Amino acid sequence: MLIKNIEQRIKINKVISISTIAFAVFIVIAGFFFAYRMIEDSRRSIYILDNGVPVLAKQTDVLLNRPVEYKAQIELFHRLFFTLAPDDTYIKDNIQKSLYLIDDSGKKEYTNLKEKGFYNQIIASSSMVSIHTDSIALNMEQKKFSFFGKQMITRKSSVITRMLITEGFFEDIIRSPNNPHGVILKNWRIINNEELSNQNKNSY
Q1: pLDDT band at 49, cuts 50/70/90?
Q2: CA pair distance 126, 113, nearest whole angstrom
Q3: For the chain, which end, N or C, has fewer CB atoms within 10 Å of the first or last residue's CB respectively?
Q4: Distances (CA, A) of 32 to 21, 25, 39, 160
Q5: DSSP H or E stretch at residue 100
Q6: Alpha-carbon gap, residue 117 to 70, rounded angstroms
Q7: Residues 11-38: what's their mean pLDDT?
Q8: Residue 46: is its pLDDT beyond 80?
Q9: Mapping DSSP to helix (H, G, I), strand (E, B) and coil, where does residue 20 land?
């Protein structure tokens, strides 16, 4: 009888010991898991200064936001490249900003338009050039884009509307003050820039 009681106590002690060890291992693993989650969560936490006051913000998944940034970069480039005023300094500043967002294909198109006298015509006729973005299509597998929009050339006596379709490729690069989205456009070219309408302004 005494032996049986000793054996039962030994079994109970073993069960208690194993349970205690298992529980301790579980606590350690759970501790590591929650610590890892906290570290990952802290990495996604950023502070934005609002009038000198730090405000906590959360970073979302980069992969989810990237297509939005690609489209923003494409639209920004086209807006800078095609928004022109009859001011040589303004034109050069806008073109310079746009060339930070693109490879040599942007410089080649700028040189081509310059040699054709496009910018001199804008200045001589006191014209304003602007664009309207209709849509931007992305092919994420090929990293290719197509831009669809309209170009408006406003002169003293008329408003010319031209179709603007371009295409090219995009590539991730390091972010910088001149390229905050960290995207470079490559092998860009104008596909269609035909005139759609030429409306005379009413003169009173």
Answers
A1: very low
A2: 17
A3: C
A4: 17, 11, 10, 66
A5: none
A6: 31
A7: 73
A8: no
A9: helix
Give the relative orientation of helices 62-82 and 88-99 as an angle to the nearest 10 degrees.
Answer: 150
Q: Report the DSSP beta bridge partners of residue 84.
A: 129
For the whole prediction, is pTM greater than 0.90? no
Single-letter residue type at 134? D
Q: Is 159 in contact with 199 (CB distance < 8 Å)? A: yes
DSSP H or E segment with residue 194: none
Region label for 77, one of left (φ > 0), alpha (ψ between -120 and 50) or beta (otherwise)? alpha
The most distant pair of C-alpha atoms in the chain lies apart, rounded to whole Å, by 121
Taken in order 27, 33, 36, 42, the sign of the CA dihedral is: negative
Residue type, 4: K
Residue 145 exposed, middle or buried by CB count within 10 Å (0-12, 13-18, 19+): buried
Distance, CA of 25 to CA of 31 (rounded, Å): 10
Tracing tokens 């001011």 back to the chain, one arrives at 87
pLDDT at position 201, please?
74
118-149 pLDDT per residue, tens: 999 999 989 999 999 999 999 999 999 999 99
Beta carbons within 10 angstroms of residue 94's beta carbon: 18
- Going by C-beta distance under 8 Å and a sequence separation of 6 or more, which residues neighbour residue 181? 69, 70, 72, 73, 76, 175
Which residues, 6+ apart, have CB-to-CB distance to 182 below 8 Å? 69, 172, 173, 174, 175, 176
